[in-house]
Specification:
Elements (H helix, E strand, L loop, with lengths): L2 H9 L4 H17 L4 E5 H8 L1 H4 L4 H18 L4 E5 L6 E5 L8 H12 L6 H31 L1
Length: about 150
């Protein structure tokens, strides 16, 4: 496997900038209606917020990595309902103010692995990378909560 691809996939993290911008957009949608829906284009978000990652030469892979992070974050934080969609050349994420079909981290892992098994050599490697990305995202969220709790004690 190309170690540069694996390293790039594992190093991508959500930035405060993308979180803030998405929160602003979702807050605006919520003020209009609680029954809103839309879509995010992972490829466009990657090029806007992570231009260096888009230059890696594996934009579809990195857009899927970003979609994995965003979907996990939006759903676990209860911000909105999000689900990545299978598209041939682009990565799209359906978002809505009402529940979409239920899915769990296993579904996300399978989605990512199926789309990226050839880029990352095989299905098992792609699944392992997806699991590590989700684990890192979960740990990132836990550390942010701990930092918030420590800041509130002062």
């Amino acid at each position: 496997m190309n170690e540069a691809k694996k390293k790039a996939a594992l190093e991508l993290q959500l930035t405060d900038e993308i979180k803030k911008d998405l929160m602003d957009d979702i807050d605006k949608a919520q003020t209009i209606s609680h029954h809103w829906e839309g879509q995010l284009d992972g490829t466009d978000l990657l090029q806007t917020y992570y231009p260096e990652a888009a230059k890696v030469g594996t934009t579809p892979l990195m857009a899927d990595v970003l979609a994995l992070h965003l979907t996990y974050w939006l759903n676990t934080e209860g911000i909105c309902c999000a689900k990545p969609r299978m598209m041939k050349y682009r990565t799209r994420i359906s978002i809505s103010g009402y529940p979409l079909n239920e899915m769990d981290s296993a579904w996300l892992t399978d989605w990512f692995a199926q789309r990226n098994q050839y880029i990352l050599d095989d299905l098992n490697t792609a699944k392992a990378i997806a699991e590590q990305i989700l684990e890192n995202e979960a740990n990132s969220e836990e550390s942010e909560e701990t930092d918030d709790d420590e800041g509130n004690e002062n």
